[in-house]
Amino acid sequence: MNTFLSSSSYRPVNDHKLLIQLSQVVKIYNTAAGDFTALNGITADIYAGEFVGVIGKSGAGKTTLLNMITGADMISSGEVIFNAPDGKSTSIHKLSENSLAVWRGRNVGIIHQSFQLLPMLNLVENIMLPVDFSGHYKRRISKERAFELLKLMELEGHAYKLPAYISGGQKQRVAIARSLANDPPIIVADEPTGSLDTLTAENIFEIFEKLIEQGRTIIMVTHDNNLAPRFTRRLLIADGTITTDSGFHLATTQVER
Amino acid sequence: MNDTTNALQIQLRKVIKRFKTGAGEYIGLRGVDVDIMAGQFVAIVGKSGSGKSTLLNMITGIDHPTSGEVLVNGVNIYKMTESERSLWRGHNLGIVFQFFQLLPMLTLLENTMLPMDYCNAFSPNERPERAMELLKMVGLQEQAHKLPAAVSSGQQQAAAIARALATDPPIIVADEPTGNLDSRSSEEIIELFYQLVSKGKTIILVTHDPSITKRTTRTLVISDGMIINETVAQALPLLNHTQMLKVTNLLERMDIPAGNTIIHKGEHIDYFFMIAQGEVEVVLQSQKREEVTLARLGAGEFFGEVELINGSNSIASVRATPDGPVKLVALHRKDFADMLVGSPLTEESITRIVQARLAQNRAADRRRRLW
Q1: Number of CB atoms found within 10 A of residue B152's CB
Q2: CATH number for the domain whose boundaries are A3-245
Q3: Which of A21, A170, B207, B359 is the most exposed place for a label (fewest CB within 10 A)?
Q4: Is A122's CB within 8 Å of B101's CB?
Q5: CB-closest option in A112, A130, A164 to B62
Q6: What are the tens digits of pLDDT across the range B23-80?
Q7: What structural domains and CATH numbers belong to chain B?
Q8: How many Cβ pairs within 8 Å bridge chains A and B?
């Protein structure tokens, strides 16, 4: 899978820069039954090139945390700061809705447990779907790029098939290809192996590890404790707080903090 | 929702679907014939692996039949190229899935606009407004600019329904649309479907959810890749699906013109009759040759069981009403007996009906003698 490297502007990095800073992140939902605190003051620094596992039980706040990082949902208090490779810092929850959509389109790829592919479109079309409307379709990628991504996922032979004709693992690879369309530095994945069998899940995990090798940053939510040793960074979360943070250390790199 | 006035919209003709798997060939559909009329609300039910979703995929063109034909509004959808079919689908079918399949990077409004963009339906300036109207209709105007991740599962499915309606297709198809929702959200989604049917849309959905089948106009039960005769499913609900399918394969069909007599009083009877369409009247003649109508029976009801169970000759005459012709499906006496042996629950329920009908008959007979 050497093609991984050629598809991206990212390279294995030695200087792991501070990429995302979560600072006292609080998320409270106002429900009919009263206020519900989903996140209760989350603070963590995520460095470029980390493979972060957000691990916890159902209802612990894992997905809410992802939504705070992608700006998919509004923050109640606290801050999420994104430090671009060019040194520019953005407090993403202070952006207007449109700017946030543009930021997300450039910087984040999202992967879901249930793939979220459109079953009536073939694989190339699914990958070419606009990832961000705010750019008025300018961000719709070319067919060549879509094919390049399919090739990366070893699916080029299936390009014109509808999702119904491929397996669950293949669907998730299409979703990964789609998430890479704009070559974003951050990939967030919510239980991406949750509906796959063990062997297929392993295949997806290996793809993520390649992406990490290539210098991308992946934040993955899982309830599966067994996966913990595979991440370079583990955030254990319970009742809306981080109970354990394994901290940032990559054996292969020297880091200045 | 008067079926007889509505046009035939979807026809499946001898549809067979075989899958090749590592373990050999597997038959998903074994020759399915179905007619669906415009405006019907149809549930497809069956056990897991029975062929429900495969059947739905034949209608959406998402999968291809191995043989047989599928006609939608008279168009053979498998005679098109893949890209023609894709465009055809965009204009004619709205599809709703169990896991919503909303694009995570787009707001609900943008997701709803997607089919219009894809099919070039409505002018580009109209699209955002139309999308907003549809979201309003499903109760999501407040959430229109949110991403799917920021709303509940029920709201995501409501948005998926708005998206399915974007190109104003005549047919909505849904695969387990409430399969991933809590019961309250399910209720709301079912209510939405119901409103769409009352506005004239045809809705076909695959479901396990009994609260949906309660509200549909029609239920197709599928078992082992074949559709169970709908009259059998209605008349003999206590059989299991395998038994229903067995009965389906043994049926004889009869068409009776309006007013014609099906059985005469006193005659020997060899069949158990189930009414598929139309109405029959059960009549006795008085000594003065005046007629007493004991009962009118309609679709899903049956007759002939009294005689088969008691071994007697016919206790009354049965004829098609003068209002219209009657379609019957009939089960031979021997197959009827086998069926009862296989299903004690059905036997018990039919025996109870026999007793009630005999009592009614005796009462009428007493009255008749007084005349």
Answers
A1: 12
A2: 3.40.50.300
A3: B359
A4: no
A5: A164
A6: 888 899 999 999 999 999 999 999 888 999 899 999 998 888 999 999 999 999 999 9
A7: 39-62+78-227 (3.40.50.300), 246-370 (2.60.120.10)
A8: 74
